[in-house]
Amino acid sequence: MARFERKFVKQIYKNSGGFLPSWPLGKQVKLGDVIDLKYRRMIYLGTLTDPAIDISITVDTDSTVDNTKWQSSKSVNVVAKAKGEIPADGSNLPINKAGITINFSKQGGFLFQPGGMRIDRIKNLVTVRKEAKERLFRELFNLRKVYIITEVGIVDSYALTISQSKNSKLEVAAEGKPTISTKDLADVSLNLEIKTESALDFNVIGSEGGEIFFKVEKLVLKQNQKEELIQRKPQLKDIPEDYLPSFLEPEIVADKGIDNLCDFIPSSLDDLEEFIGDEDDI
């Protein structure tokens, strides 16, 4: 994941209250997917609804999403031009078409425009967590972090532009409309034409959407169980907590029950850094 893309992911995570975009953007995810986040990759491990695991998921849909929290960084300046209006000096927009000019004043600035956004959540999450602990433990992948996707952000369509410099620029014209706005950049039905594309790290307009944002919870040992495991196996004291459930002894699980040993907890900033990678890794 490039440096500028990392900024987009971090900003979306912050603005949206913990959602991560699938990457590359457009990769589809599903409620109940079981994944590992590692080294700028989302590794698919399975799904809770698979017949081998067979956990029933009830879905709750929220269509009252505030799109403005997702749309752009502060370093974006948007200027619209109506059809028939003379374009500004230096613009490549034609007089006979409506258009829009987007200037960026920072590296890593972004404009994200979703179309028709909603959020699906696991409604019976308490039950799903309990069943997932019991059934996933039998299927735990050795030395894997285990996350389940508990919420997905769904868009009908989208546009995303990420700047590569403080002078990045995008100009888009539209056929058959008197005026356009940033909302139109996500419209797959419009005949949009890119007239200027300067110093952009990533640029997609009028793209089909889907389930392309997600929230996850990860499986960890309860604090007292973590301490007891490390007392039994001191060599594990420097192992990240996310990996510790796979070191539980079968006899301990049989005696105490996995529900009393582990919890699913929301992802953290550390998980975000694991997903996007360090600057030194790029």
Automatic annotation (TrEMBL):
Protein name: Uncharacterized protein
